[in-house]
Every structure is written in C-alpha cells, then in structure tokens.
C-alpha cells in the first residue's frame, strides 16, 4: 500500500452517491479519480492492499478501512472524505442495483437480476436486508453495511476527515460543497460554486450519461426513497438489525451529527 503525501482518499459506502462525490471532487481538485481494478464477482472491500494511488489523482473506492489502511492514511497525512447514507435508503438503492442490473450499460453489471425476478419485490428487499447466497452471488446483507459504517467512523475517530452523508450532498449541496472546500483548502473562485451546483445536478449528470448511453445509474437522485418502498416488516427488520449488530452505533453517529442515517423518514 502506498499513497502520495496529502492525497485525497474518498471512501464511500456502496450505493451512497459515489458517482456524485467523484464528480464534485474531480471538479474541485482538478484531478482525475483513481479506482482500483474491479474483477466482477471477486470484489473485496476489506482488502487494504487496494489502497494505493498514483500522483496527481485522488483515490476512490468502497474500501472498509482496517487498522492497516488507517495507518497508511495517517502515514501519508492523507485527506479522507467519507461518504455514508441513510441505511433504509441504502437498502432500497442496493436492491435496485441488483434487480435492475445497474451499470450493465457500462459493462459492469453484476448480472444477477434473474434471482430477483424470481422473487416478489418484498422478498427481494428482504434478501438485501438479510443477505442471500447463490452459486455465483453472495450478498452479506445489512450487517456488512453496518460494519462498513463502523469502520468509516473508526477512521474518522483516528485521523482528521470530512464525514458527509448522501442526504447532505443532494438536499443541501451548496453547504456540503462549502464544507468540502474548507476541508480541502480549495479557494472558491467567483461563480465557481454556482457553476458546480448546476453542473452536478441530478438532471445534468443524467443527461450527460444518456449521451454516452450509460444512464442506468441515475434512477432517482433524492433522499427518502425508502418511504415509498419498504414495508413495515422491512423497517422493523432494519431497525432491529442496527441495534442487534452494533449496540453503540446510534451513540457514535450522534457524536458525529449523523443520527439521521439510522432513522426511518426522509433521511435528510
């Protein structure tokens, strides 16, 4: 593992707004994003050996930072941006990622939609929450996402970071961009903030992706999708799992001012 001194490390939960975050950082830093190589079906978000980045770019991946990764980040005096999302919304977005084979138009679809086609929507959402195992598809469910959130908080408690939520980025982008710029010591040029807000609106980014024939990733673009998607049984299962898997998570999130990521509702 090696990182350039003071490089930006963007760590995001799976389906937490990674594409939006990358676009914002690329514009702010005037640097390209570096993502480690992906081998479909063999992705390991816990492999700290993936934490490397060439000069002149910023790192972005769904890495779950263990103690070795945290030490690498600290040794490089890197500047981590951590992106998390309301767990209820996260489950819905992850369901659509697999059920709709998102990113197939980019050659990166997971191609497991047939498993979800064989289920009711309710059962498919339950599988995302509880986990499922097939010969070519292992999904570890919400406990794995909770562990990811915990590890991101471990990093935030060990090294200066900018911890943000998807809801902050889409519901109050101007404020979120101000926080990012301050953390990265980026000087806002005249009109820069207005231009960036407009260029990274959901519709603008979707239109650009449609021109490339790669718009499947842009489904909704706002917070609170679980309100219309999850049934009471799903809500109960998610809430109970949070408290059972990580009894201290609510307290930790409250200390960071992100309690809403564990709450049903709008998530904002």
Strand content: 5-15%
- Indicate the CATH class: Alpha Beta
Q: N-to-C terminal Cα separation, in Å?
A: 35 Å
Based on secondary structure, the structural category is: alpha/beta
The count of helical stretches stands at: 13
Estimate the global geometry from the Cα principal axes: globular
Named CATH topology = Rossmann fold
Number of domain modules: 1
Mean pLDDT, to the nearest integer, reads 89
Structure description:
The protein is 48% helix and 10% strand. The chain is α/β, with parallel strands linked by helices and 268 residues long. The protein has a single domain (8-259), classed as Rossmann fold, CATH 3.40.50.300. It has a five-stranded parallel sheet with strand order 2-3-1-4-7, sandwiched between helices. The chain has a two-stranded antiparallel sheet with strand order 5-6. It is globular.
Essential attributes:
268 residues; alpha/beta; Rossmann fold; five-stranded parallel beta sheet; two-stranded antiparallel ribbon; globular
How would you concisely characterize the structure shown here?
By secondary structure, the chain is an alpha/beta fold.
Write the layout of secondary structure elements.
Layout: E1 8-12, H1 18-29, E2 33-34, E3 58-61, H2 67-75, E4 79-84, H3 87-99, H4 113-117, H5 121-130, E5 132-134, E6 137-139, H6 141-158, E7 162-165, H7 166-171, H8 173-184, H9 192-199, H10 202-211, H11 226-229, H12 232-245, H13 249-255
Parallel strand pairs: 1-3, 1-4, 2-3, 4-7
Antiparallel strand pairs: 5-6
Helix pairs in contact: 3-5
């Amino acid at each position: 593992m090696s990182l350039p001194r003071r490089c930006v490390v963007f760590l995001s939960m799976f389906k937490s707004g990674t594409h939006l975050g990358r676009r914002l950082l690329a514009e702010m830093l005037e640097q390209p994003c570096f993502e480690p190589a992906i081998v479909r079906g063999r992705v390991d978000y816990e492999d700290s050996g993936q934490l490397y980045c060439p000069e002149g770019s910023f790192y972005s991946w769904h890495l779950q930072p263990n103690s070795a990764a945290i030490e690498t980040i600290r040794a490089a005096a890197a500047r981590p941006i951590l992106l998390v999302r309301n767990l209820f919304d996260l489950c819905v977005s992850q369901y659509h990622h697999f059920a709709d084979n998102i990113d197939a138009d980019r050659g990166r679809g997971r191609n497991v939609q047939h498993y979800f086609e064989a289920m009711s929507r309710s059962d498919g959402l339950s599988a995302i929450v509880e986990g499922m195992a097939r010969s070519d598809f292992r999904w570890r469910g919400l406990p794995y996402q909770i562990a990811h959130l915990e590890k991101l908080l471990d990093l935030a408690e060990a090294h200066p970071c900018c911890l943000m939520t998807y809801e902050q980025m889409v519901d109050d982008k101007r404020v979120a961009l101000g926080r990012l710029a301050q953390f990265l010591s980026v000087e806002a040029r005249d009109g820069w903030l207005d231009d960036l807000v407009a260029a990274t609106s959901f519709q603008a980014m979707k239109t650009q992706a449609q021109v490339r024939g790669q718009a499947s990733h842009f489904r909704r673009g706002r917070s609170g999708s679980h309100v219309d998607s999850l049934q009471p049984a799903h809500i109960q299962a998610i809430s109970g799992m949070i408290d059972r898997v990580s009894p201290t998570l609510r307290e930790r999130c409250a200390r960071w001012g992100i309690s809403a990521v564990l709450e049903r509702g709008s998530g904002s």
